[in-house]
Amino acid sequence: MHPLLFTLGPFTVYSYGALMVVAFLAATLLSIRAARRLPPALVAIRPDQLIDFTCIALLGGILGARVFYAVLHWESFVLSLQELLAIWHGGLVWYGGFLGGVLAGWGYLLANRIPFVRAMDQCIPFLALGHAIGRVGCFFNGCCYGRPTTAWCGVIFPGHATAVLPIQLFEAAGLLGLYALLRALQRPVVLRRPGIVFGVYLGIYALLRFFLEWFRGDQVAWWAGLTLQQLISVGVLLMAVLLLSRALLRMPRIEMNMS
Known about the structure:
The protein is mainly alpha-helical.
Protein backbone atom coordinates (compact mmCIF):
# COMPACT_ATOMS: atom_id res chain seq x y z
CA MET A 1 0.00 0.00 0.00
CA HIS A 2 1.41 3.36 -1.04
CA PRO A 3 -1.41 5.94 -1.20
CA LEU A 4 0.86 8.99 -1.52
CA LEU A 5 3.25 9.27 -4.45
CA PHE A 6 4.89 12.54 -3.47
CA THR A 7 4.28 16.02 -2.10
CA LEU A 8 5.41 19.15 -3.91
CA GLY A 9 4.86 22.23 -1.77
CA PRO A 10 1.13 22.50 -1.09
CA PHE A 11 0.32 19.82 -3.68
CA THR A 12 -0.02 16.15 -2.84
CA VAL A 13 -0.15 13.53 -5.59
CA TYR A 14 -2.06 10.39 -4.66
CA SER A 15 -1.43 7.00 -6.24
CA TYR A 16 -5.14 6.41 -6.80
CA GLY A 17 -5.68 9.68 -8.66
CA ALA A 18 -2.45 9.37 -10.65
CA LEU A 19 -3.35 5.90 -11.88
CA MET A 20 -6.83 7.09 -12.82
CA VAL A 21 -5.17 9.68 -15.05
CA VAL A 22 -2.87 7.02 -16.52
CA ALA A 23 -5.88 4.77 -17.14
CA PHE A 24 -7.79 7.52 -18.92
CA LEU A 25 -4.85 8.52 -21.11
CA ALA A 26 -4.00 4.93 -22.02
CA ALA A 27 -7.60 4.06 -22.91
CA THR A 28 -8.12 7.24 -24.93
CA LEU A 29 -4.85 7.19 -26.87
CA LEU A 30 -5.02 3.49 -27.67
CA SER A 31 -8.66 3.76 -28.79
CA ILE A 32 -7.69 6.58 -31.15
CA ARG A 33 -4.81 4.53 -32.53
CA ALA A 34 -7.06 1.50 -33.05
CA ALA A 35 -9.75 3.61 -34.77
CA ARG A 36 -7.20 4.85 -37.30
CA ARG A 37 -6.34 1.27 -38.18
CA LEU A 38 -9.90 0.04 -38.67
CA PRO A 39 -11.42 -0.20 -42.15
CA PRO A 40 -13.47 3.00 -42.69
CA ALA A 41 -16.72 1.02 -42.97
CA LEU A 42 -16.24 -0.31 -39.45
CA VAL A 43 -15.44 2.99 -37.74
CA ALA A 44 -18.47 4.02 -35.68
CA ILE A 45 -16.84 6.90 -33.84
CA ARG A 46 -14.05 8.80 -35.57
CA PRO A 47 -10.65 9.40 -33.97
CA ASP A 48 -11.33 13.14 -33.74
CA GLN A 49 -14.54 12.42 -31.80
CA LEU A 50 -13.00 10.00 -29.34
CA ILE A 51 -11.43 12.61 -27.07
CA ASP A 52 -14.78 14.34 -26.54
CA PHE A 53 -16.52 10.99 -26.09
CA THR A 54 -14.04 9.64 -23.53
CA CYS A 55 -13.97 12.91 -21.56
CA ILE A 56 -17.76 12.98 -21.31
CA ALA A 57 -17.90 9.29 -20.41
CA LEU A 58 -15.20 9.82 -17.76
CA LEU A 59 -17.10 12.64 -16.10
CA GLY A 60 -20.30 10.62 -16.11
CA GLY A 61 -18.42 7.62 -14.78
CA ILE A 62 -16.84 9.50 -11.88
CA LEU A 63 -20.20 11.03 -10.96
CA GLY A 64 -22.00 7.69 -11.13
CA ALA A 65 -19.30 5.87 -9.18
CA ARG A 66 -19.23 8.49 -6.43
CA VAL A 67 -23.02 8.75 -6.13
CA PHE A 68 -23.31 4.96 -5.89
CA TYR A 69 -20.62 4.87 -3.18
CA ALA A 70 -22.20 7.75 -1.26
CA VAL A 71 -25.60 6.02 -1.29
CA LEU A 72 -24.07 2.80 0.04
CA HIS A 73 -21.94 4.58 2.67
CA TRP A 74 -24.03 7.65 3.44
CA GLU A 75 -23.11 7.51 7.14
CA SER A 76 -19.49 8.33 6.22
CA PHE A 77 -20.48 11.68 4.71
CA VAL A 78 -23.12 12.94 7.15
CA LEU A 79 -20.59 14.85 9.26
CA SER A 80 -18.23 15.70 6.41
CA LEU A 81 -20.06 16.58 3.21
CA GLN A 82 -16.91 18.04 1.64
CA GLU A 83 -15.48 14.52 1.64
CA LEU A 84 -17.89 13.74 -1.20
CA LEU A 85 -15.52 15.59 -3.52
CA ALA A 86 -12.34 13.87 -2.29
CA ILE A 87 -12.33 11.07 -4.86
CA TRP A 88 -8.52 10.85 -4.60
CA HIS A 89 -9.13 9.14 -1.25
CA GLY A 90 -10.93 6.34 -3.07
CA GLY A 91 -14.61 5.53 -2.73
CA LEU A 92 -15.79 4.82 -6.27
CA VAL A 93 -18.08 1.91 -7.09
CA TRP A 94 -17.36 0.32 -10.46
CA TYR A 95 -20.90 -0.59 -11.52
CA GLY A 96 -22.11 2.90 -10.60
CA GLY A 97 -19.29 4.36 -12.65
CA PHE A 98 -20.02 2.06 -15.57
CA LEU A 99 -23.68 3.06 -15.60
CA GLY A 100 -22.85 6.75 -15.30
CA GLY A 101 -20.24 6.54 -18.04
CA VAL A 102 -22.52 4.61 -20.39
CA LEU A 103 -25.37 7.08 -19.90
CA ALA A 104 -23.12 10.09 -20.45
CA GLY A 105 -21.49 8.48 -23.47
CA TRP A 106 -24.88 7.48 -24.87
CA GLY A 107 -25.97 11.12 -24.69
CA TYR A 108 -22.93 12.15 -26.74
CA LEU A 109 -23.50 9.38 -29.28
CA LEU A 110 -27.17 10.25 -29.58
CA ALA A 111 -26.38 13.92 -30.16
CA ASN A 112 -23.93 12.97 -32.91
CA ARG A 113 -26.13 10.24 -34.42
CA ILE A 114 -23.58 7.51 -33.77
CA PRO A 115 -24.90 3.92 -33.31
CA PHE A 116 -24.49 3.05 -29.64
CA VAL A 117 -23.67 -0.66 -29.93
CA ARG A 118 -21.17 -0.18 -32.74
CA ALA A 119 -19.43 2.54 -30.76
CA MET A 120 -19.24 0.27 -27.71
CA ASP A 121 -17.80 -2.55 -29.82
CA GLN A 122 -15.10 -0.13 -30.93
CA CYS A 123 -14.25 1.33 -27.50
CA ILE A 124 -15.01 -1.29 -24.87
CA PRO A 125 -11.65 -3.14 -24.95
CA PHE A 126 -9.92 0.04 -23.85
CA LEU A 127 -12.34 0.46 -20.97
CA ALA A 128 -11.23 -2.97 -19.73
CA LEU A 129 -7.59 -1.84 -19.97
CA GLY A 130 -8.29 1.39 -18.10
CA HIS A 131 -10.20 -0.54 -15.46
CA ALA A 132 -7.21 -2.85 -14.98
CA ILE A 133 -4.92 0.12 -14.38
CA GLY A 134 -7.47 1.61 -12.00
CA ARG A 135 -7.50 -1.60 -9.94
CA VAL A 136 -3.76 -1.22 -9.41
CA GLY A 137 -4.64 2.20 -8.01
CA CYS A 138 -7.05 0.48 -5.61
CA PHE A 139 -4.20 -1.76 -4.46
CA PHE A 140 -1.93 1.20 -3.70
CA ASN A 141 -4.82 2.98 -1.99
CA GLY A 142 -5.66 -0.03 0.18
CA CYS A 143 -9.33 -0.26 -0.79
CA CYS A 144 -11.28 -3.14 -2.37
CA TYR A 145 -9.18 -5.65 -0.42
CA GLY A 146 -9.75 -9.37 -0.02
CA ARG A 147 -10.36 -11.75 2.85
CA PRO A 148 -7.72 -12.60 5.47
CA THR A 149 -5.30 -15.25 4.25
CA THR A 150 -2.17 -17.15 5.19
CA ALA A 151 -1.25 -17.76 1.54
CA TRP A 152 2.04 -16.56 0.08
CA CYS A 153 0.28 -13.80 -1.85
CA GLY A 154 -1.21 -12.17 1.25
CA VAL A 155 -0.60 -8.45 1.79
CA ILE A 156 -0.79 -6.56 5.07
CA PHE A 157 -2.48 -3.20 4.63
CA PRO A 158 -2.42 -0.50 7.34
CA GLY A 159 -5.35 -1.01 9.66
CA HIS A 160 -5.39 -4.79 9.14
CA ALA A 161 -4.04 -7.15 11.79
CA THR A 162 -3.48 -9.97 9.31
CA ALA A 163 -2.59 -10.34 5.65
CA VAL A 164 -5.43 -10.19 3.13
CA LEU A 165 -5.81 -11.34 -0.46
CA PRO A 166 -4.80 -8.70 -3.04
CA ILE A 167 -8.08 -9.05 -4.91
CA GLN A 168 -7.35 -5.72 -6.65
CA LEU A 169 -4.40 -7.30 -8.47
CA PHE A 170 -6.33 -10.48 -9.27
CA GLU A 171 -9.04 -8.41 -10.91
CA ALA A 172 -6.45 -6.32 -12.74
CA ALA A 173 -4.92 -9.50 -14.19
CA GLY A 174 -8.34 -10.76 -15.26
CA LEU A 175 -9.13 -7.44 -16.92
CA LEU A 176 -5.84 -7.48 -18.82
CA GLY A 177 -6.75 -10.91 -20.15
CA LEU A 178 -10.19 -9.63 -21.08
CA TYR A 179 -8.61 -6.67 -22.88
CA ALA A 180 -6.42 -9.02 -24.92
CA LEU A 181 -9.44 -11.18 -25.84
CA LEU A 182 -11.57 -8.21 -26.88
CA ARG A 183 -8.78 -6.78 -29.02
CA ALA A 184 -8.44 -10.16 -30.72
CA LEU A 185 -12.18 -10.09 -31.43
CA GLN A 186 -12.00 -6.67 -33.10
CA ARG A 187 -11.71 -8.19 -36.56
CA PRO A 188 -13.88 -7.27 -39.53
CA VAL A 189 -15.76 -10.59 -39.52
CA VAL A 190 -16.78 -10.01 -35.88
CA LEU A 191 -17.38 -6.27 -36.05
CA ARG A 192 -19.81 -6.81 -38.91
CA ARG A 193 -22.18 -8.20 -36.28
CA PRO A 194 -22.62 -5.29 -33.85
CA GLY A 195 -22.90 -6.31 -30.23
CA ILE A 196 -20.55 -9.29 -30.09
CA VAL A 197 -17.53 -7.48 -28.64
CA PHE A 198 -19.64 -5.48 -26.19
CA GLY A 199 -21.60 -8.58 -25.20
CA VAL A 200 -18.46 -10.60 -24.57
CA TYR A 201 -17.13 -7.81 -22.36
CA LEU A 202 -20.33 -7.66 -20.31
CA GLY A 203 -20.55 -11.43 -19.93
CA ILE A 204 -16.94 -12.15 -19.00
CA TYR A 205 -16.60 -9.19 -16.66
CA ALA A 206 -19.84 -10.15 -14.90
CA LEU A 207 -18.51 -13.69 -14.38
CA LEU A 208 -15.12 -12.40 -13.23
CA ARG A 209 -16.66 -9.98 -10.75
CA PHE A 210 -19.17 -12.54 -9.46
CA PHE A 211 -16.38 -15.02 -8.76
CA LEU A 212 -13.97 -12.54 -7.15
CA GLU A 213 -16.68 -11.21 -4.84
CA TRP A 214 -16.48 -14.49 -2.89
CA PHE A 215 -12.97 -13.47 -1.86
CA ARG A 216 -13.59 -9.80 -1.07
CA GLY A 217 -13.15 -8.76 2.53
CA ASP A 218 -14.98 -5.43 2.36
CA GLN A 219 -18.39 -6.57 1.13
CA VAL A 220 -21.48 -7.83 2.94
CA ALA A 221 -24.26 -10.12 1.78
CA TRP A 222 -27.43 -8.44 0.55
CA TRP A 223 -29.65 -11.36 -0.43
CA ALA A 224 -29.30 -15.15 -0.44
CA GLY A 225 -25.68 -14.87 0.63
CA LEU A 226 -24.80 -12.74 -2.40
CA THR A 227 -23.29 -9.27 -2.30
CA LEU A 228 -24.84 -6.33 -4.13
CA GLN A 229 -22.09 -6.53 -6.74
CA GLN A 230 -22.88 -10.19 -7.36
CA LEU A 231 -26.57 -9.45 -7.79
CA ILE A 232 -25.74 -6.70 -10.27
CA SER A 233 -23.36 -9.09 -12.05
CA VAL A 234 -26.21 -11.55 -12.56
CA GLY A 235 -28.24 -8.81 -14.24
CA VAL A 236 -25.27 -7.77 -16.38
CA LEU A 237 -24.74 -11.39 -17.43
CA LEU A 238 -28.36 -11.64 -18.55
CA MET A 239 -27.91 -8.46 -20.59
CA ALA A 240 -24.83 -9.98 -22.19
CA VAL A 241 -26.73 -13.13 -23.16
CA LEU A 242 -29.50 -11.08 -24.76
CA LEU A 243 -27.05 -8.85 -26.62
CA LEU A 244 -24.99 -11.77 -27.91
CA SER A 245 -28.08 -13.71 -28.95
CA ARG A 246 -29.35 -10.76 -30.92
CA ALA A 247 -25.97 -10.17 -32.55
CA LEU A 248 -25.42 -13.81 -33.52
CA LEU A 249 -28.92 -14.50 -34.80
CA ARG A 250 -29.11 -11.43 -37.03
CA MET A 251 -27.49 -11.23 -40.42
CA PRO A 252 -24.42 -8.97 -40.61
CA ARG A 253 -25.55 -5.33 -40.81
CA ILE A 254 -22.30 -3.69 -41.98
CA GLU A 255 -21.29 -4.35 -45.56
CA MET A 256 -17.62 -4.24 -46.36
CA ASN A 257 -16.33 -2.51 -49.49
CA MET A 258 -14.87 -5.43 -51.48
CA SER A 259 -13.62 -3.42 -54.45
